[in-house]
Amino acid sequence: PGGTTDAFLVSSPPASFAQEGPASGQAKERPPIAVIAHRGGALLRPENTMPAFRHALELGTEYLEFDMEMTADDRIVVYHDAVINRDFCKQGGGADTAPAPVRSLPFAKTQELDCGSAVRPQYAGARFKPVPGARIPELGEVLRNFKATDALFFAETKIPKDSDVDPVKFAALLDAAVRENGLEDRLILQSFDFRTIDALHKINPRIRTCLLGVPRQTRDYLAMLRKHEARCIVLADNEVDRAEAAKLQEAGILLFSGVADSQEQWQKYVDLGVDAIFTNDPEGAIAFLKRSGLRK
Asked: Would you say 231 and 254 are in contact if contact means Cβ atoms under 8 Å apart?
């Protein structure tokens, strides 16, 4: 909420990203920089799949990041594209897939797809390991399977343009899944669509929210965050300087990097003092932070 000065800090490994700020007059001790596995680490394993999330946690990643779409029967699935992507999601046996919108498919149909044998071209490389048979998971499956770990969750709502998806219903279904698994203090909702941000805050203000794409609208980040009662923002290195970053963090805002996959980019975000590095290569980012003496 606007005007708050409580600090929402990340520890490693965290049970929650919400901790009380230091008492007045005490120096603030910055926690280690966390790592967010974008789509579970899309350069290493099939994006947005259970094998990717398991692998990211094995590496020591704090945050599992994933996208959410809604099916024809109003189930939330973990998938990025509005339309099933034929590059990496195939019918059983490797047959080509019709490019159907996720919203047009009942949940059962999404489970017939193999999204682990192939890879989105931009993530192809020597380090990518396919996992044949990996399915599109449902939100509840992800939360249930990893709630007993130290994982934090960074989940993005995706509502395609001209879609009939109700943002309030989307937020309500997300809230129900989070509550059912006791993860209100371990999941952050992120979105470019601030309708879902606002809806979730009204439904359950305990769940943190994170704004995407703010620089497209304004450079007054704190004003926008307060307007939507969000306590997290994702910014690229050219969208914020060190002084602005410190101002945001002093106001209790978590500052996450843009998606970055090289040592040069990671160093820029370290210099900015971000709370977490957002990457398709969590293995590389963790190794970089260890070499830099920023992680044990």
From this structure: yes
In DSSP notation, 152-166 reads EEEEEE---TT----
Please state the separation of Cα 76 from the chain's center in Å: 15
Three-class DSSP category at 37: strand
Residue with tokens 């159907």: 100
Query: Amino acid letter at 45?
Result: R
**Backbone torsion region of residue 74, taken as left when φ is above 0, otherwise alpha when ψ lies between -120 and 50, otherwise beta:** left
What is this structure's pTM? 0.91
Tens place of pLDDT per residue across the chain (296 aa): 333 333 333 333 344 654 334 444 454 677 899 999 999 999 999 999 999 999 999 999 999 999 999 999 999 999 999 999 999 999 876 667 778 999 999 999 999 999 999 999 999 999 999 999 999 999 999 999 999 999 999 999 999 989 999 999 999 999 999 999 999 999 999 999 999 999 999 999 999 999 999 999 999 999 999 999 999 999 999 999 999 999 999 999 999 999 999 999 999 999 999 999 999 999 999 999 999 999 98
* DSSP label at residue 220: -
> Is there a contact between 62 and 13 (Cβ–Cβ < 8 Å)?
yes
Which helix H or strand E contains 140, and what residues bound it? helix 139-146
User: Taking the alpha carbons of 139, 257, 205, 219 in that order, is the dihedral positive or negative?
Assistant: negative
Which residues, 6+ apart, have CB-to-CB distance to 141 below 8 Å? 50
- The residue among 140, 139, 116, 136 whose CA lies nearest residue 128 is 116
Q: Is 61 exposed, middle or buried (0-12, 13-18, 19+ CB in 10 A)?
A: buried
Count Cβ atoms within 10 A of the Cβ of residue 12 and give its class: 0-12 exposed, 13-18 middle, 19 or more buried. middle
Helix (H) or strand (E) run with residue 177 in it:
helix 167-180
The residues that bridge with 234 in the sheet, in sequence order, are 256
Task: Please identify which residue in the block is written with the tokens 């919108």.
Answer: 101
